[in-house]
Amino acid sequence: MKRQLYFLLLIVFLPMLGSAQFILEGKISNQANGEALPGANIVLKGSNIAAVSETDGSYIFKRLKKGSYIVKVTFIGFKMIEKEVNINSNSKLNFKLEEEAFLTEEVIITATRAQKNTPLTYTDIDDEQINRENTGKDLTYLLASSPSTVVTSDGGTGMGYTGIRIRGTDLTRINVTLNGVPVNDPESQNVFFVDLPDLASSVDKIQIQRGVGTSSNGAASFGASINIKTDKFRPDVYTELSSAAGSFNTFKNTLRFGSGLIKGKFAIDGRLSLLSTDGYVDRASANLRSMQFAASYLGKKDIVKFFYLHGTEKTYQAWYGIPKDSLETNRTYNPAGEIYDTEGNFLGFYDNQTDNYNQTYYQLHYAHEFNPKLNLVTALFYTKGKGYYENYKNNKKLSNYGMNDTIIGSDTLSRTSLIEQKWLDNDFYGINLFLNYNADRLNLNIGAGFNKYEGEHFGKIIWAQIARLGDYDRNWYFNTGNKTEFNIFAKANFVLTEHLNLYADLQFRTINYKIDGTDDDLRNVSQQHQYNFFNPKAGIFYEVNKNNNLYFSVGVAHREPNRSVFLDADPGQEIKPERLIDYELGYRKRATHFSFEANLFYMDYKDQLVLTGKINNVGAPILTNVPDSYRAGIELSTAFNFLKIIDWSLNATYSQNKIKDFTEHVDNWNYWDDPDNQPYQYENELGETDISFSPDWVAGSNLRITAFKGFSVSLVSNYVGRQFIDNTSSLERSLDPYLVNNLQFFYGISPKWIRKLEFIVSLNNIFNEKYETNAWVYRYVWEGLESEMNGYFPQAGFHFTAGINLKF
Q1: Which residue among 122, 565, 602, 774 sits deepest, i.e. has the most Cβ atoms within 10 Å of its Cβ?
Q2: Which of 569, 605, 639, 617 is nearest to 400 (CA)?
Q3: How many other C-beta atoms are found inside a 10 Å radius of the C-beta of residue 502?
Q4: Across 643-737, where does the E strand assignment appear?
Q5: Could you tell me if residue 13 is inside a domain?
Q6: How far apart are the first and last CA of the chain?
Q7: What is the pairing mode between strands 415-438 and 286-298?
């Protein structure tokens, strides 16, 4: 492998060693304030030699021949500039760009993002950081180094079904938007990034807000929000090819292309991606495809952008986890798809125990500038989802599927093995409106959103070992979920003095949710729920000086229960909406080569829905309300730059996450033997306990050394403290702490025949740590003895990925 790499590098460099060569370098900055402009395009006219400015605005051309060149610099929102330079020695040429008076695509997401002087806790991630680490893992894994973040993967490799928790908050409570459009599924309130394969290759920037955050559209921001903006158009024509391969038969191939700016007003951009892996866990394969297309019109006063994104996934089910007693002896064992005969003898696994889903996003954005201070942004969207997961079921009662017993001769057969498909067919559509006013002392955002979700849930039996064809050639259950939401908000940031800003954010949400029909257990689950929520937020931002600021904020959020909470509730159980009051106190310091942030938070919950430890038949956790609970902690993060060679960013979170008075309920399996004398459940009053999956300590480090221009080595480390699987604070039902280290090599050059050539090698879990990131447990009592069923999600040991990016 090493010899092949050396040979490849030799081929690249050999033709460049023969002639006199010079360097042209410089920096691109904003003429108005001197700030660096990363991502500017620098082209030597009349040639195919080009570069893109780095994070600090710097650029460099190497191996230039003696002569005269015209250097052209373009950057969105700024006037194009050209300069002539004579090269007869190493030279420097800086550019200061003048802003143009027309709208940019940034206006599309302005209303939902925190700005520099917003008194909220947030982290910004740019496309450079994402591109350096993007070798095919899910987008959640590219966010793993942000503060208070823990990621997990069902298959153990970061491709396929993955999850993310921020401050212990999972994706059903994290508001996710894509270009300001809601992504969370309205019924489950979850986000399935597996349906958006290789989304990272289309990302321009991401903002993670921790705590309640700013008002947005879609699901409640009940602890965090993730705002994703896809690529902005590029002024020049481009084509990019990316390929990666690695352990577990993992492959990623991506094609990106763009027309550049046509006639100064039009642009077309697109992406095609193919990803696949066998997974670390047995049979946890994933075959993923996606395509993206964007067409833009950019005028001085108007922007129109159509955005299309389609994803297709087929993954072998791994969502049941691995039994705890198999972790030491066979930690990749996957029980999904097991086949047994009528005597209970194991026969093998069902090959098509898979999840199959297609999701398509259509977005139409329009922005109009009335004057330099006032603009209007609208977005129409439609998201279509359809798919199913297929299960082999052993020796099931025919009556459970609404089928009649089968008579063969003198025998009446009431059980059969069968293959079922559970389908979801849904439509999600709506409109967002934002009015943005930006004056010298007042920034005002007024927004409104309306969306409607229509979903059909139904089951098919495609094969049965013993049954009449007419019995199973139909839907055995069918129900619909219809959800309508309207929200309106107003946000104001007022400059009270030169150093003091006041912030206010008021939101009203109204939700109507109706379920009609029968579920997969043939119960009639028809019900309707109406919620009205008022979510006020306020804060103060104090700028001590140019490099130091303080902020304080308090915000209220409410969240309605999701579909599975209603369906999994015990008979007669009242499910309440949740309320969160979030307090944030922070300090930020910014210097040329150093930054530091400290944040104290206290999140006070009323009727928080917490895990019972059980999962339902699709591996989703079952929840219950607890009256009082809280999360309190401190987040620290810092970043250093030494001599332009070493970049080191670190973060650490210490928190206490408690239920003030928790009562555990354990099912009694002998209840039905004697309902008059046996309890339905046993209760254990435990007092104050830890909230599940909320570690006391979370820490991350990213140490990058740039040995020479274009070549860097990064050591990325993540530590996660002990996580309890349920809310009993039992060490027996917890995940051990773990420390995982990844090593990444990045090398980028700009030979004459291509704009940029990049090599990425990722060595993951270099110390072969054995660890689990997620689990579930269900406890019960039978014959007077406590027992449990469980599933753990082990992650891959040492594994690697190597990739190449060709940018034309």
Answers
A1: 774
A2: 617
A3: 15
A4: 646-668, 681-690, 697-708, 711-720, 723-724, 734-735
A5: no
A6: 27
A7: unpaired
In sequence order, the 6+-apart residues with CB closer than 8 A to the CB of 470 are none
* Domain co-membership, 140 together with 52: no
CATH assignment at residue 729: 2.40.170.20
Is the domain of 177 the same as that of 307?
no
Cα gap 309→291, rounded to integer Å? 6
Q: Which of 167, 196, 230 is the last residue of a domain?
A: 230
Let me know whether 335 and 359 are in one domain: yes
Report the alpha-carbon distance of residue 84 to residue 93 in Å, rounded. 10
H/E stretch holding 785 reads strand 785-794
**433 Cβ partners below 8 Å, 6+ apart?**
376, 377, 378, 447, 448, 449
- For the chain, which ranges sit under pLDDT 70? 1-20, 100-105, 111, 467-473, 612-621
Query: Does residue 2 fall inside a structural domain?
Result: no
Question: How far apart (Å, rounded) are the C-alpha atoms in residues 802 and 791?
Answer: 32
The first and second tokens of residue 256, run together, are 């990106």
CA distances for 19 relative to 61, 85, 752, angstroms: 15, 20, 13
pLDDT of amino acid 642: 86
- Domain end, chosen from 206, 230, 254, is at 230
Question: Which one-letter DSSP state was computed for residue 620?
Answer: P
Q: CA 734 → CA 167, 266, 730, 770, distances in Å?
A: 17, 55, 7, 15
**Looking at the structure, do residues 165 and 298 belong to the same domain, yes or no?**
no
Contact 763, 744 (CB under 8 A): yes
CA torsion sign, 127 to 131 to 133 to 134?
A: positive
Count the Cβ atoms, other than its own, within 10 Å of residue 10.
Answer: 9
CATH of the domain at 69: 2.60.40.10
Task: Give the count of domains, the chain.
Answer: 3
Q: Does residue 91 share a domain with residue 138?
A: no
Structure-token match 């009256």, residue found: 627
For the chain, give the longest Cα–Cα distance: 101
CB atoms within 10 A of CB 798: 12
Tokens of 259: 């027309």
Q: How far apart are CA 760 and CA 742, in angstroms?
A: 13
pLDDT of residue 512: 97
Q: Would you state the pLDDT for residue 536? A: 96
Amino acid identity at 713: V
pTM beyond 0.85: the answer is yes
Element (H, E) at 755: none
Does residue 16 lie within any of the structural domains?
no
Supply the DSSP symbol for 192: -
- DSSP result, 96-136: EEPBPSS--GGGGTGGGS--TT-SSEEEEEEHHHHHHH-SS
Count CA within 13 A, CB hemisphere, residue 537: 30
Q: What is the pLDDT of residue 614?
A: 59
User: Within 13 Å of residue 599, how many CA atoms lie on the same side as its CB?
Assistant: 28
Q: Helix or strand or coil: residue 577?
A: coil
Q: Output the CA torsion sign for 28, 31, 37, 39.
A: negative
Query: How much is the CA Rg of the chain, to the nearest whole Å?
Result: 28
Length reported for the chain: 808
Q: Give the domain extent around 553.
A: 238-807
Measured distance CA(373)–CA(680) in Å, rounded: 64
In a domain, 303, yes or no: yes
Q: HSE on the CB side for 531, CA within 13 Å?
A: 25
78 and 111 share one domain: no
Residue 471, SS3? helix
| Exposure of 481 in the CB half-sphere (CA atoms within 13 A) | 23
Q: How far is CA 577 from CA 215, 406, 530, in A?
A: 18, 46, 11
Fill in the amino acid letter for 405. Answer: D
CB atoms within 10 A of CB 408: 8
Q: What is the CATH number of the domain that holds 115?
A: 2.170.130.10
| 562: Cβ contacts below 8 Å, ≥ 6 apart | 172, 187, 188, 189, 190
Q: Which two tokens stand for residue 361?
A: 């996003």
Q: Are residues 653 and 780 in the same domain?
A: yes
CA contacts within 13 A on the Cβ side of 228: 23
